[in-house]
Every structure is written in structure tokens, then in C-alpha cells.
Design brief:
single chain; alpha/beta; Rossmann fold; seven-stranded parallel beta sheet; six-stranded parallel beta sheet; about 15% strand
Length: about 375
């Protein structure tokens, strides 16, 4: 990285989410230098812990406060920041204010994780109106790039696609059978149970309700199968109530927010991603690196990592019978499952964290 460059990342909070996972990976990468800083605009109850000294969390829980602006102005002046790299809606607005009022020469990067889809008209309008102030938009998938162009009329010349990443040094399948079986027993499962997992924020578009409905149906004819869910979000209470109403809580365990996802993936016979859409789902990359077969809905953003059925399986989100057939195939056909695992691992190698950081450093050096 150019020694003169100093980059300040802005993010609304370190709550559980894809953007937070991306920021964590960037700041814990071995390629990080002291010239990278992170400013978090507010505190939240659940924090994604990041091991890096250059992190400042503003001491407030208020979502709509403008008070962080003065602290940001001081930090940018003190550290002589060259580039503002913004994640999520509120951070984007703060980045635009800082550039327009005080720092017109600072390069502004907006990292589009999916807000263009879910944050509504005001978000899209803000991107459209102020796009001339933005030097580069990073889109996490081709679908997000297309959405920026069609929904906010962003100049395609300003958009760079950089897919999310997996840290191959961290997500390694090295747990012994004894350790895996011990974890199963702690959950009340038997050693021979085939475990099916879901991981994600507990919001509607992630498909957690469809996952529970599928689990209830599949368990009727498959007694040696268990289900686990990792995640947190505003629909947590709804998930717990839904599981209890289905009366399957002994066979479907909600784990809450899981910090050690390596242990979670180690338990799985397969991972189901029933999302309505995704920006660039990191769970696909992480599970594949861990040797876990993935069955994903054929949804925008979900269908860009694995290009065919040799490395990942897809299903129509509304067709739970198709999903059941593919789960059954993985359970009963060891040779097929091994091929999926091998091909998936080969597919995700190019999405490793080192390659991601090289792309990011290149963009910082030439943000135009």
C-alpha cells in the first residue's frame, strides 16, 4: 500500500451482519497496516469483536444523532486521512457530509452490501443525488452492481465488483471425529446424526421460517437427522416461538449468536441457504472452505459463487420437495457428497482473504 495513504472505514455499528464480517476480515488481515482506521458510529448490544488497535466506537446508542461528526472531523484532521470507506446507509450519509462540508479532496468509497435492495427509496435517492461526490462504489456481486445501475442510476464506470471473501487460514476442517461427536452430545444429538444447519441474521429475507418449516416436514420421515440455527436479529423471538409451536425443539436447536463459526460448520452434514436474495453470502464461502456441502436457493446474489451443480446445489425457494430430494441425496450418496465438497473447495480458493486485500489495496492506490 502507498505509504502516504491513510484509510478511514466508517460503519454504523458492530452488530451481527455481513458488512460487519467484511470489516472484521479487513482489519484482522495480516496485510493490514497502521494506516487503516475504523470509526463505529454507535454502540450496539451485540458486538462483532475485532482484534485491531485502530478502532474507535462513539459512546452513544442513538441511531440518528449527528454528534459523531465532530469526532470524525478531528480524527480525519489528526491522522491526515486520504480515503473514507463507508459501509451501510448511515455511514454513507456521514461520509458525504464530511466530504461536502470539510474534506472535498478526500476520496470517498461507498461499499454497497445490499442496502440498494432493502433500504428503500430514500437510500436510492441519496445515492443518485450525491453520486458525483462518490469516487468509487464497491458492489459485492454482479447483481448488486446491476441494482445500483437500475435502481439508483449510478454510472457503471464508477462501480467495481469485489466479492466477499473467506479466510482460508481460519476456516479449516481440522476437528477430529471425537471432538465433533462431543459437540453433538452436548446438544443432545447422537454421534450418527446427520446435522443440517442455517446461519444468518434473523430477518425475513434470510428464509429462517422456511428453514423451520422444512425441518418439521423432513423430520417426519428422517429420525437420524437434526437441525441447528446460528444467528441473531430482530426476529429472534419470533423464531423461538415458531420452533416451540412446531414442537420440534429437541430436533432443531437454536444456538443464538455464534462467535466461533468454525465449530458450528464442523458439526454440519450440509448447510441450507434459503435466502430470498443476498449481496454476497459469506456463509457459502465459509462452509465450502470447511468441506460442508451447500444447498442454496436459486436467488439473486446466491447464484454467483457456484456456477453449476458440481460444486453447490440449488433449489427453488418455494419448492421444499426439491430441497428434500437434494438433502436426501447428500445423506445417502457418499460419493456424490465427496465430489460436491471437493469441487466447492476448489471454487472458493479464488475468494480468499489475501486476494481480497490485494484488490482493495489496488483500489485504494487508484480510486478512480
Amino acid at each position: 500500500m502507498n505509504k502516504e495513504l491513510k484509510i478511514l472505514h466508517l460503519i454504523d455499528s458492530l452488530a451481527f451482519g455481513g458488512a460487519q464480517s467484511v470489516v472484521k476480515g479487513i482489519f484482522e488481515s495480516p496485510k493490514v497496516t497502521p494506516r487503516l482506521f475504523l470509526f463505529v458510529l454507535r454502540k450496539r448490544e451485540t458486538l462483532v469483536k475485532i482484534n485491531n488497535p485502530n478502532i474507535q466506537i462513539f459512546d452513544s446508542t442513538r441511531k440518528y444523532s449527528l454528534k459523531p461528526l465532530l469526532a470524525l472531523r478531528s480524527l480525519i484532521r489528526k491522522e491526515e486521512i486520504n480515503i473514507l470507506h463507508c459501509h451501510l446507509f448511515r455511514a454513507n450519509i456521514f461520509g458525504l457530509i464530511l466530504k461536502i462540508i470539510w474534506f472535498p479532496r478526500v476520496k470517498l468509497i461507498i461499499h454497497e452490501h445490499g442496502g440498494i435492495i432493502e433500504d428503500g427509496l430514500l437510500y436510492r435517492l441519496s445515492l443518485f443525488v450525491f453520486q458525483k461526490k462518490v469516487d468509487i462504489f464497491i458492489a459485492v456481486s454482479q447483481w448488486i452492481k446491476e441494482s445500483l445501475i437500475t435502481k439508483a442510476k449510478i454510472n457503471k464506470q464508477k462501480i467495481r465488483v469485489i466479492y466477499n471473501f473467506v479466510d482460508l487460514s481460519r476456516f479449516v476442517a481440522n476437528a477430529s471425529h471425537e471432538m465433533i461427536n462431543l459437540q453433538k452430545r452436548k446438544l443432545g444429538f447422537s454421534d450418527s446424526d446427520f446435522v443440517i444447519g442455517f446461519s444468518g441474521r434473523l430477518i425475513k429475507r434470510k428464509g429462517w421460517k422456511e428453514f423451520v418449516v422444512f425441518a418439521e416436514s423432513f423430520l417426519q420421515n428422517n429420525k437420524k437427522v437434526k437441525f441447528i440455527i446460528a444467528g441473531d436479529g430482530r426476529q429472534k423471538a419470533g423464531l423461538i416461538n415458531f420452533i416451540n409451536r412446531k414442537k420440534i425443539s429437541q430436533n432443531l436447536i437454536y444456538l443464538g449468536y455464534v462467535e466461533n463459526m468454525v465449530n458450528f460448520y464442523s458439526l454440519l452434514g450440509c448447510l441450507i441457504v434459503p435466502s430470498y436474495w443476498e449481496g454476497s453470502p459469506m456463509v457459502q464461502l465459509e462452509a465450502a472452505a470447511m468441506g460442508v456441502p451447500i444447498i442454496s436457493s436459486w436467488a439473486p446474489g446466491c447464484n454467483e459463487i457456484f456456477v453449476n451443480n458440481k460444486s453447490g446445489l440449488y433449489f427453488n425457494r418455494s419448492d421444499l420437495f426439491e430441497l428434500a430430494r437434494k438433502v436426501d441425496l447428500l445423506i445417502k450418496n457418499d460419493h456424490f457428497r465427496e465430489d460436491i465438497v471437493k469441487n466447492a473447495r476448489e471454487s472458493v480458493i479464488k475468494f480468499n482473504l489475501d486476494n481480497y486485500m490485494l484488490k482493495l489495496v489496488s483500489l485504494y492506490s487508484n480510486p478512480s
